[in-house]
Amino acid sequence: MSRSKAKRTMQTGVTAQGEPMVWLAGGMFAVACLMILSLLTLVLWQGLSTLWPRSYLVYVRPDGSLVTGELYGVRKEAASKKVYLRTGNYDVSNQHFLYADDADFASSEAWKPVDLWTVERKEWGNLYGFPKQLSWTDSTRERFAQDVRVALRETQKIDRALSHEKERLKQIDQRISKARLAIRAIELSEKVDLQSDIDEAVAAKFQAIQDRGVDSGVTPEVSSQATTNSAGWVPSRELSNAARKSIERYADVSLEAEAQMVSINEEIAKLEGMRGERVVTFELPITDPLGAIDWEWEQVRSGKIEDWSALQGIVPQLVADTGGSGESKAPENPSLQVEAIGEGQVIWELNRESKQPIRLVMRRSDDGKAEVFALREHAVVLADIVRFFAPNQMNLFQRLGVYLSRWWEFLLGEPREAGIEGGFFPAIWGTVVMTLIMSLAVMPFGVLAALYMREYAKRGLLLSIIRISINNLAGVPSIVYGVFGLSFFCYMVGGYIDGGPAKAGFDPWPSATWFSALAILAVVGIIAFSVAVLAGSLGTRGSKRKRYLRNASAVLWLATLFGIVVLLVRTPHFHGFYQAQLPNPTFGKGCLLWAACTLALLTLPVVIVATEEALAAVPNSLREGSYACGAGKWQTIHRIVLPYARPGIITGFILAMARGAGEVAPMMLVGAIPLATELPLDLEFPFLHGSRSFMHLGFQIYSLGFQSQNSEAAKPMVFTATLLLLTIVTLLNQTAIWLRARLRKRFQSSQF
Amino acid sequence: MNRLKAIADGQNVESVIHEEVLAKDAVLSIENFSLFYGRKQALHSISMPIAKGMVTALVGPSGCGKSTLLRSVNRMNDLIDSVRTQGDMLLNKESIFAPGVDVIQLRKRLGMVFQKPNPFPMSIFENVVYPLRIDGERDKSVLMEVCEHSLRGAALWDEVKDRLNESGLGLSGGQQQRLCIARAIASDPEVLLLDEPCSALDPIATSKIEDLIDKLRGEYSILIVTHNMQQASRISDHTAFMYLGRLVEMAETSTIFTRPRLRETEDYITGRFG
Questions:
Q1: What is the tens place of the pLDDT at every residue in A413-467?
Q2: Angstrom distance (rounded) from CA A309 to CA A315
Q3: Cβ separation of A628 and B120 shorter than 8 Å?
Q4: CA distance A541 to chain B (A)
Q5: What is the longest distance spanned by two Cα atoms in chain A?
Q6: Which pTM was predicted?
Q7: Complex ipTM value
Q8: Cβ A723 vs Cβ A44: under 8 Å
Q9: What number of other Cβ atoms are within 10 A of residue A279's Cβ?
Q10: Which residue from A540, A622, A751 is facing B120, i.e. has the nearest CB?
Q11: A113-138 per-position pLDDT tens digit
Q12: Are A627 and B173 an interchain contact pair (Cβ–Cβ within 8 Å)?
C-alpha cells in the first residue's frame, strides 16, 4: 500500500464550498455600501435642506423670557427634545444659533407669528421681525410686501449705477498706476530718480490749467480735457526722451483723473445718499422677559382695559410717553388698537396718535391671563435687503420659490458675509478653471513621459527604479506638494518671472563670465547635436561604436540642458517682466497658475501609471503590422499606438481630474483664498489671469467650517458646499467618461 | 532519417534543391543566411530562391525556423534586440542586409500578413490605405482607387464596399485577415509574406483565403509559411521543407508531394514523422 485513498462522502464539506466566506464577503460588501450610502445621505440631506425656508417659532420660558428663531432642527433626547434655532438679528442679539431644551419652556407649543418677516440682508445675516413702517411711503401693513418689492427693484438700479461708478474709479486707478509703472520701468532701466520731476510736471501742468481756467473763466475741472494737448512743463534738467514722455503722460493722466474723480466721487456720494434714504423699520421680538400681567385674556383681546396700572410696572416707558415724571401714573386716555396675529396672540398698539407708538405682543398664558412681550424697533436700509418673505404664512409652493431663488443665488451669485451667505459662483468658477488648467498641464507631460518609458527607453534596472519611484510619488501627502509648490513655483519661478535671478535668490554672474559660459554651452550643444546625428547615420545595429556614440550624445545633451538652466538662473541681463511692480509680487505668490502647476505635479504619477498601462495593453501585433507596412517608429506610435491607447489615457485624465479637483491641502499654500474679488477667467483682456488668486470649493469648505469668524453660522453652508463640490467633481468625471465612451465606440464597435 | 538525426546532432547537412526550382527567375534569393538569437543559432546558412510570380510554401515542424526566415525577409527581427545575422538576401538583386539599407524603405517593398488578423483600430478604408497614408498621400481619389483595387484583389470589396467607414475590428475573423491581405498588397509589394495566415481561421474562411492566394498567383510573388500539408499542396508552386533551422529539400510542390528525393521529406509529408 502506497497511499490511502481520499475520503469519499456523499456531501461536500463546508470547507470546500466555503459558505461562511460568502456571508463574510457579502457582509463586508454591505458595510461598504452602507458607508457610501450614509455619507451620500448625510451630504444630500444636509446640503439640500440648508437653503429651505423654515418657520419662525417663539417659545416662552416660565419666567416670561422668549426663545425665538427659525427652526433648523429638532433633536430628541431621552426625556425631552432639543430645538436648534437660528436666532438671526445678529446685530442686536450677538448670536446666530442656539440650542434650547423643550423642558425649559412654559409650553411646548410654539407661537408662530404670522406677519413676521425673514429678511436676508447684505450684511449682518438674517433679520427676523415685524415690518412696521416704510420710510418712503405711508402704506398699510397689508401693502408692505408689495411696496417693498417695488422699491427693491428701484434700489437695484441705484446699486447698478453705484457699481458702474466704482468700476470707473477702478479703471482710472488702473490708468494712473499703469502710467506710474511706465515711469518706474524707465527709472529702473536708466537708474535715475524721477520723483522730483514728476512733482514738478504735475505742479506745472496744474498751474497751466488754472491759468487757462482763469483766462477763459471756466472751472479747472471742466477744462481738464484740454491739458492733454498742451505741454505746460519744461523739465528742469536733462531727461531722456522716453522719461520726459512718460512723465508728461503721467501728469496728464493723473490731472485728468483727479478732475474725473471729483465728479465720480460726488456721484457716488449722491448715490450712496439715495441708497440710504429708504429705510424699512422692523420690530424685533425681544427675548428679555417683560412678565405676565393679571388681566383676563378676554379683556386684553377686546382692548377694554380700564386699569392700566398693571402694565405700568412692566413697561416703564409708558411713564415717559404719557408725560409722567417718576410718579407711577397710569396713562389717562391711551388710544388702543388691538390686532390679532394668531391664535391666542394679539399685538397691542398704544397711543397710535403719538409719533412713537408702543407696540406690545400679548399672549394668552395657560391660566387664561395675558403675557406681555415688547418689540424693539430696528431700521434696515432698503438697499441692504436681498430677499424677504413671511415664513409662517407661506405654503409649500411659496417656500419652494424661495428655496429655488436661494439656490439660484447660491450657484450664480457673489458671496455675502465672507462667504457664509450668498453665492458660491467664484468658488465654483475657480475650481473648474483651476482643474481644467491643471488637466491641460499634466496631460502632455504625463503622456510623453509614459510614452518614453514604454516605447523608447531600454528596459532595465534604471527604468524599474524610476517606475517604482513614480508609483511611490502618488502616495506622498499632498501638503508636501503644497510646500514644494510654494517654495519652487511661487518663490523661485514666480520670483524669477517677477524680478529676475536676484529675486529668485540667485546671484547673477558677471557679464563676461556669463557670455563665456554661453559660448562654451553653444559649442557643447553643437557637439552633442553632431554626435547624435553621427550615431544615427551609423547604420549597423548594435555595434559597439554606435552605442558609445549614442551614450556620449545623451550625456552631452543632458549637460547642455543643465547648462541652459544654469545660464538662465545666473544671467545678469534679465531683471524680470514685472520688476516695476516690485515689491508687490505678480507671479511671485500663490496664484492660479502655480496652483494648477502644483496640482499637475501631484497628479502626474496617476497619469503616467494609467498611460503606461494603456500603452502596455496595445497588442504587439498591431505594432508589428504597422512596421511591416513600412511605418516608422513615430508613425506607428502616432497612428496606431496612441489612438488605441486613447481610452486608457483618458482614464488617467479622469483619475487625475478627480484627484485634483478635491485636493485642498496644497491649495491653501499656493493660491486659494477665502474671498477673491476677481475671477481667474473673465471677459477682461487677457481673459485668463494666471497671476490672480482664486476661490476654491474645497478650500471654501475648510475655511467656512473651521476658519471663519463664526463657524456655527457657516456650518449648514459647509454641507451645501460639499454637495456642490461632489456634484462638480462628478460632472467633470462624467463628461470625461462620456468622451472616452465616444472614442471607444469609434474604434471598437463589435468585435467578431 | 539519418539526415534529420545529423541535423539534430548539429552536423552540417547539404540542402537538396531541385533543378527546376533553380531554373526559375528568382525575385528573392536567400544566400547563406544564418540568424542567431543571442548565442543560439536559429537559422543555419540557408540558401534558396523564391520564384517570381509563384507561391512558395515553407513547411516543417514547429520551431524549425520557418517564421524566423520569413520575418527576416522584411527584417522584422530587427525589432528584437539580441538578433544577429550572417549572410544576405537579395530582393530583385538588391541586398537586404547590407549596412546602408533603409529598413523602412525595404519594408515598403514587401507586404506581410500575420498569423492572427491584426487590423488597425480605424476604419476599413483607413486600414487598407495605411501604407499610403504613412507615405503622406492625401489625394482622396488616389486613396479610393487603391482601396478599391486592393479590396477587390483581396476578394473583400463586395462584402465591405458599403461600410468602408466602419471599424475594421467589426469584421469577422476571415474578413479581417483578407483586410490585412488587402493592406499588404496596397503598396504593390515585390514579395508577399504570409505567416500562417489561416491558422486562426475556420475552414470556410481558410478556403476563401486559399482561393485568394490562388487568385494572387502570377500577379504577386508569395512566400507562405504553413503547418498544413494539404494547404501547401493545394496552393503552392514550390515547397521547401525545413528542419531545425536548416533547409532540407526544396522542389516543385507536385514533386515534393509525390516523389521527393529524400526519404525524410517523404516521411514528414506523409505524416510518418513530425
A1: 888 877 677 888 999 999 989 998 998 899 999 999 999 999 888 888 999 999 9
A2: 10
A3: no
A4: 9
A5: 135
A6: 0.79
A7: 0.92
A8: yes
A9: 16
A10: A622
A11: 788 889 988 888 888 888 878 888 87
A12: no
